[in-house]
Amino acid sequence: EFHKNEKALLDSKRSGFSLEKILAMGKSSYQHLNKPVPIGSEVKLSSDRAKLDRFGRTLSYLYLNDGTFINKLMLADGYAYLHTVAPNVQFKSEFSRAASKARRNRAGLWADVDLDRF
After folding, report:
1. What's the rounded Cα separation, in Å, for the pair 75 and 8?
2. Which of 11, 44, 85, 97 is the most buried (most CB within 10 A)?
């Protein structure tokens, strides 16, 4: 999240980070995403079972035309946190491994986070 909204406030409460920290982390993630997927990029979307989350946002798996799996890439690079929403669990194990490795290696946003808080 990089705009103040209900989800950002929930993330702040859940994580213990200030709203400002949540928004800064969201901005960093957005900037990181724009490296492999600049605005206007052609991408492929694939859906699991549910098409929208409870906030009305589209739930999709995002692929570049060269096959790069952006959801997994963002987790592996440490610029996303693992959050699967049942029934959309097709890649849960794969995502979990990528996220765990990023956290262990203190990649991306994990570089300056107190991991004992999680």
Report:
1. 19
2. 11
Helix, strand, or coil here: 69? strand
> Where does 34-91 have alpha helices with state H?
70-76
The number of beta carbons lying within 10 Å of the beta carbon of residue 13 is: 11
Q: Is the predicted pLDDT of residue 20 greater than 90, yes or no?
A: yes
Contact 59, 53 (CB under 8 A): yes
Give residues with Cβ within 8 angstroms of 26, minimum separation 6: 1, 2, 3, 8
Span 3-18, average pLDDT: 91
| Model confidence, pTM | 0.86
**Which has the closest alpha carbon to 110: 81, 78, 83?**
78
CB 67 within 8 A of CB 47: no
Q: Do 83 and 116 contact (CB within 8 A), yes or no?
A: no
CA 40 from centre of chain? 20
Q: Give the burial class of 37: count Cβ atoms within 10 A of its Cβ; 0-12 exposed, 13-18 middle, 19 or more buried.
A: middle
Q: How far apart are CA 9 and CA 67, in angstroms?
A: 34
